[in-house]
Amino acid sequence: MPASNHARVSPAPPALEVRDIAKRYAGKTAVRGVSLRIEAGEIVGLLGPNGAGKTTTINMILGLLAPDAGQVMIAGLDLARQRAAALAQVNFQASYAPLPGNLTVRQNLLFFGRLYALPGVARRVDELLESFKLTALARTRCGLLSSGEQARVALAKTLLNRPRLLLLDEPTSSLDPATADDLRQMIRDLAARNGCAVLWTSHNMLEVEQVCDRVLLLAQGRVLLQGDPRRLAAEHGDASLEALFIRIAREPLASGEST
């Protein structure tokens, strides 16, 4: 049989694949055997009470902490062995990390673009100013912007390096409801249009149901539950995702185990 003229195309690797990672601090296990996978264009929620291991997990994905065991793969790149190339595929934003208020919108974007060593950074900044309807505010200091405008600048900043993976830690926690809804819509559109994968942490269960395709619920450093946030509560006999979250958060305390 003659060979096919069509080359076989290998499937793209997932944007993020975490394999059985673990981390201990001062003899206490913060994360134990966490695994997760996020495909291009997928929004996954990472949920859990305070002390569940969310921040430690995020810090290992960002390369700020080295896992004691396990592996982090970003866009098919091993973070431990191909650190620079892997981290070039990622960006991060949190509501508690505002942009410098004394710099203008353009100056902020140029600063971070140069920090990322991006080629053609000025052109990329102009593209993002237009995409996020920020051109008229380009010369305005970020400290003078409304919370909604600042959120748009922060999201534009995360896209400077065209990341395959975005990590968003409580991105709407400081926003009013209308602004938070606008930001959620921007992120949904971004994932759908650009194929950017998103790992989203939040304590707002209604937000999680609106935004996320899947959720993972952590407690005591382990993934206890995962699934569709619109079905998960019913599958486990709870009235709502929030009720499920509260039950999981209280169970370790009820059993006398430390968090």
User: H/E element string?
Assistant: EEEHEEHEHHHEHEHEEHH
Write down the CATH topology: Rossmann fold
Which class of secondary structure composition applies to the elements?
alpha/beta
CATH superfamily: P-loop containing nucleotide triphosphate hydrolases
Query: Taking strands numbered 1, 2, ... along the chain, how are they ordered across the largest sheet?
Result: 6-7-8-3-9-10
Can you count the helices? Answer: 9
**CATH arch. level architecture:** 3-Layer(aba) Sandwich
Distance between the termini: 63 Å
What proportion of the residues form beta strands (DSSP E)?
15-25%
Mean pLDDT: 90
CATH class categorisation:
Alpha Beta
Radius of gyration: 20 Å
Total E-strand runs: 10
Please describe the biggest sheet, giving its number of strands, its sense, and whether it closes into a barrel: 6 strands, mixed
Q: How much helix, percentage-wise, in residues? A: 25-40%
Number of folding domains?
1
Gross morphology: globular
| Poorly predicted ranges | 253-259
Domain ABC transporter: 16-245
Keywords: ATP-binding, Nucleotide-binding, Transport
Family: Belongs to the ABC transporter superfamily.
Organism: mine drainage metagenome
